[in-house]
Amino acid sequence: MIKSFSIFFVAAGIVGLLFALFPTLRICHKADKHFTAWRILGAFIMFFVIGYFSFLYILQSQELVPYTYLLIAVVLFGGSIFVALVIRLSLHSIEELQKAAAVERHHALHDGLTDLPNRTLLHERIDQAILDAKRSDRPIAVLLMDLDRFKEINDTLGHYYGDYVLQLIAPRLRSCIRESDTIARLGGDEFAVVLPGVNLEKAAAISDEMVRVMEESFQIEGNDLHLDISIGIAMFPEHGLESDTLLQHADVAMYVAKRSEGNYAVYDAAQDEHSMNRLMLTVELRKAVEAEQLVLYYQPKFSLAEGRVCGVEALVRWRHPDHSQLVLPNDFIPVAEQTGLIRPLTYWVLDTAFAQFSSWQQAGYHIPIAINLSAKNLHDGEAYAQIRELLEKWKIDAHNITLEITESSMMADPDRAFRVIEDLHGLGIQFAIDDFGTGYSSLAYLKRLPASEVKIDKSFVMDMISDENDRVIVKSTIDLANNMGLRPIAEGVERKDVMEKLIELGCETVQGFYICRPLPPEEVLARIDTLNGKEPPLSPHTRLSY
Q1: Residue 372: alpha-carbon gap to chain centroid
Q2: Is residue 274 part of a domain?
Q3: Domain end: 109, 129, 146, which one?
Q4: Using the 8-state DSSP alphabet, how is residue 508 labeled?
Q5: In angstroms, rounded to a whole number, what is the distance separating the alpha carbons of residues 303 and 306?
Q6: Of 60, 122, 220, 373, which has the fewest Cβ atoms less than 10 A away?
Q7: Cβ(140)–Cβ(126) under 8 Å?
Q8: Number of DSSP helices (H) and strands (E) in the chain, helices first
Q9: 326-364 pLDDT, tens digit each
């Protein structure tokens, strides 16, 4: 009986060791660290198995087995079970850790919202594609894209639906490319696609297909939502040999596409130089707003009917430390609009102009001020609150402030722009239609706008004496404004004969270098006193560029 039990426990121990040996071999294949130690442990298990078989042979060769042999057999059985449990638990722990590491790596390399590869994994994929392309001498196309006016979706519908739209976009873009291609989300509404082995012609065709699928409406809460996309294309090796360079150049091309009529653009080195200048200008402009490098000049508007100055237009200038002359708004306002700096810049202009009006009023001067608003301001939900706050801050009657807007500034979202305009007009703010005739001239908009002035663009006024078409446009605009009860204001008056012709045509107000060039506050007051004391000068000021 003792012999039988001893043999049973030793045999069971052998089974237990063999049961531990196979997980040990699996651990050797899985372990990233301590590989040698696990192999040594496996060798020890094999050594123990041989020892167990040797003891089993001794038991079988003896007729009488003492109790000590039974005790040794039980200990050997317990040891094998212990080793088997430890090995099994170790294997389970390693597998769980590897699963957790895999999940963590997936999260580190993929976007949490769309589960697409993120920027880090995108760089890895591009670098791998470059290595393969160098071996096979094949091109690579890198596409960078973002959604136009996606911010309006978040502002209108909320971030929940904005995120939902982003989740719907990924499958549509994926349908345009191969399984081997990579599509990644870089953040926000920006996506990138890597197309190994694809030439420029094929990349352009894929871009067209992406634009087409994005034009199909998205169903959001029963509403049809349409999105536009801008795509920049950079090619390996023509436009870069590294992932960073390719993505940077695709980004440059994407912004070119945004400014052009097409939905995609191919990288051009000449555009890159302009983009770098724009980037540097953006950084410097941000500093300019904070460092008070901006100044306001004022140009009088002269009423021909009253024979005196009826107001001034505030014009921002940049006193750049590296430029000998003031930087004019045409050189930095477009950059401010594209980068979002237009909001703090406009707030600074409004605050400074309102402060100047208050200062003049306290000094006994009543000089209404006109200030330009951009398209970004008209679609800014905070514009109304900011202007109301500034009116209260400087204790200004809103009727003394005119905001100049262009027709084209309302085209992106007319309903929203009209709401902002009507709210501001409710405060008493006056409105002037600036650069009339150069944008989307619409009599329907003109009728709806609570405007009191129409400003005739200088491009028609300056050459109206020699160009009959310009003269006809100016006369028609003056007649239209007068018939609608609006004040026509001619910009760009630089010569006496032009002003005399405007008087003949019935124009009520003029503005330009013939009357007065833009001047700083302390100088413009003296000029206004001169203009209000006599007729406009018969000799023009030196003609300067706007």
Answers
A1: 25
A2: no
A3: 109
A4: -
A5: 5
A6: 60
A7: yes
A8: 19, 15
A9: 999 988 888 887 667 888 999 999 999 999 999 999 999
CATH number at residue 407: 3.20.20.450
Please say whether the beta carbons of 183 and 266 come within 8 A. Answer: no
Residue 503 tokens read as: 């008087």
* Parent domain of 60: 2-109
pLDDT in tens, 392-412: 999 999 999 999 998 767 665
Q: Which of 48, 83, 109 is the last residue of a domain?
A: 109
The CA dihedral of 504, 510, 515, 516, to the nearest 10 degrees, is: -170
Residues 6 or more apart whose CB falls under 8 angstroms from that of 403 comprise 370, 371, 372, 373, 424, 429, 430, 431, 432
> Residue 305 is which amino acid?
A
> What are 485's strand-pairing partners?
none
- Is the residue at 272 inside a domain? no
Position 442 scores a pLDDT of 61
Here the tokens at position 387 are 């202007």
* Bond from prior residue into 329 cis (ω within 30 degrees of 0): no
256 lies in the same domain as 345: no
Best CA proximity match to 545, nearest among 494, 499, 504, 502 = 494
Tokens for 199, please give them.
């030439």
- Where residue 209 sits, what CATH number does that domain have? 3.30.70.270
Question: 45 in helix, strand or coil?
Answer: helix
Q: Are residues 123 and 105 in the same domain?
A: no
Each residue of 266-295: pLDDT tens digit? Answer: 998 776 655 566 667 778 888 898 888 999
Kind and range of the H or E run holding 187? strand 182-187
Closest CA to 243 of 130, 137, 319: 130
**Separation of alpha carbons 229 and 266, rounded Å:** 15
Dist CA 314 CA 352 (whole Å): 10
Q: What are phi and psi of 220, to 5 degrees?
A: -125, 110
Q: Are 509 and 301 in contact (CB under 8 A)?
A: yes
Residues 508 and 406 in one domain: yes
For residue 181, tell me if it sits in a domain.
yes
In a domain, 541, yes or no: no
Q: Are residues 222 and 330 in the same domain?
A: no
Residue 37 burial (C-beta neighbours within 10 Å; 0-12, 13-18, 19+): exposed
